[in-house]
Amino acid sequence: MTIKPRNLPSPVMNDELIAKIKAWVGDPARAPLLHDLLHKEVGRIIEQMQGEDFAAAAPYSDDELLRRVTAYEMKSADLACAPGSAATGGVRKCARSGRG
User: Fold this and answer.
1) Which of 38, 40, 65, 89 is 20–30 Å from 32 (CA)?
2) Phi and psi angles of residue 58, each rounded to the nearest 5 degrees, phi first
3) Quick one: how many helices (H) and strands (E) in the chain?
4) How far apart are CA 89 and CA 63, in angstroms?
């Protein structure tokens, strides 16, 4: 199997999530709020991955693997990009290294 680079669009960040992280990241008193916000985002991702689209018993194929990896990337984009985006002034797009 040859893995080819994919040219996926960069996800647009959740404005509310970025605004909260930017406001809370530099304030030690708000660390519990930041923790709770990120914990909630992880819960949202896990909930979205509970359906039949991600069932472990689904038949394996290269196309199915690619579909799942792409879906995982899109569902977790806010969580993956939010800290860096907030730290760099809230740039709203998350650059995918080597993929555009």
Assistant:
1) 89
2) -65, 145
3) 3, 0
4) 37
What is the spatial distance between Cα 21 and Cα 13, in angstroms, rounded to a whole number? 12
Query: What whole-number distance in Å separates Cα of residue 89 and Cα of residue 64?
Result: 37
9-52 residue pLDDT tens: 666 667 787 778 777 777 888 888 888 988 888 898 888 888 88
For residue 68, the number of C-alpha atoms closer than 13 Å in the C-beta half-sphere is 16
Distance (Å, whole) CA 98 – CA 86: 21
What is 11-42 written as a DSSP string? PBP-HHHHHHHHHHTT-GGGHHHHHHHHHHHH
What's at 9, amino acid-wise?
A: P
Q: How confident is the model at residue 96 (pLDDT cuts 50, 70, 90)?
A: very low
